[in-house]
Amino acid sequence: QVQLVESGGGSVQTGGSLRLSCAATGNTYTKHCMAWFRQAPGKGLEWVSTIDSGGGTTYYADSVKGRFTISRDNAKSTLYLQLNKLKTEDTAMYYCAIGSPGSWSLKGQGTQVTVSS
Fold first, then answer.
1. What is the pLDDT of residue 30?
2. pLDDT value of position 86
3. Are the CB atoms for 51 and 58 separated by under 8 Å?
4. Measured between alpha carbons, how far is 109 from 76 in angstroms, rounded to an integer?
5. How far is residue 59's CA from residue 50's CA, in Å, rounded to a whole number?
6. Distance (Å, whole) CA 110 – CA 92
């Protein structure tokens, strides 16, 4: 059973950067794709990015393409999301997920990102 703990959120101004981390426990982490989702106040859950089990293939939502970078360190069982050129519309609770497209499991509490102008 994999458990996920997100960290690294905070408050930044427009144009700033943050690096989110997601630490995984359990011995099946390296076998699965990982993803980041976010949920803005009053809105539904939005997919942000996906990375395959080996870290060689990545996918991004159009809204973050060119600004966010997903990566993973399987030796440390940790997933990352580098957020650059942040916009106010990036304000949300960010969650990591494990699984596969169409079958994601969000197991963490999330980490809050707040971007102000």
1. 82
2. 98
3. yes
4. 20
5. 5
6. 10
Answer for the pair 117, 14: CB distance below 8 angstroms, yes or no. Answer: yes
Beta bridge partners of residue 63, listed in sequence order: none
Consecutive 10-residue runs of the chain (117 residues): their mean pLDDT? 93 98 87 95 96 95 98 96 98 96 91 97
Number of H helices, E strands in the chain: 0, 11
Residue 116 to residue 28: CA distance in whole angstroms: 38
Residues in the chain: 117
d(CA 17, CA 107): 25
- What secondary structure letter does DSSP report for 108? S
Sequence-distant (6+) residues with CB within 8 A of 85 are 15, 17, 67
Q: Is 22 exposed, middle or buried (0-12, 13-18, 19+ CB in 10 A)?
A: buried
